[in-house]
Design a protein that fits this description.
The protein contains two helices and no strands. It has about 70 residues and is mainly α.
């Protein structure tokens, strides 16, 4: 079973909103498919954390631009 998400073509910060959303979905699906104790979960989780941080940063910037 291949659960590894495809690496994006660009760094996380350079992805479009849609690419970021899709990559997040790939990472979340991979984590759901893996056993809880699988060692490969850690690097996938780190990638997901980076995606979530980027999405939160963009949301803060967007909210700030509305004022």
């Amino acid at each position: 079973m291949d659960t590894a998400p495809q690496e994006p073509a660009h760094p996380v910060a350079a992805l479009t909103t849609y690419e970021l959303r899709d990559y997040r979905g790939q990472l979340e699906r991979a984590l759901r498919k893996l056993p809880a104790r699988a060692e490969v979960r850690a690097p996938i989780r780190l990638k997901l954390d980076a995606v979530l941080a980027e999405q939160e940063a963009r949301a803060r910037v967007s909210a700030g631009s509305l004022r």
